[in-house]
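Dear support,

I submitted the protein below through the web form. The confirmation email said the job was done, but the results page showed an empty box. After a refresh the structure appeared. I'm attaching both so you can tell me whether what I see now is the final result or a partial one.
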Amino acid sequence: MDSQDLIEIAAKAADDLKARNIKLIRIDMVSSIADWIMIGEGLSGVQVRSIIKAVEDKVSEKANILPLRKEGVNEGKWALLDYGDIIINVFQPKERSFYELESFWSHGKTYNYSNEIDLL
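What the results page shows now:
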């Protein structure tokens, strides 16, 4: 399973838990830290934690891999799952606008996630 398959699995899992404004940013041509970054939003700490858990569960189920690192899950303001090739970020709205990761990674190719997305 390649990194594009993984990011699509993660985005679908986040979307199923009503994550808002999901962005998939392809960064493999501009950075060596990962191939893809997903940025999504939950409206509360409970929703952020639920989205992260759903992503982790679905990636484990479909690809049989666990994150290399998890950050911020208990706080639920900005949670991160690092799988090596993909990095998942789920924010509450205030933190998302403060950190502006989309601006930081603007030199990557950004896709707005929808169930019908075709990343090729």
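Response: this is the final, complete result; the empty box was a page-load delay. The mean pLDDT is 94.
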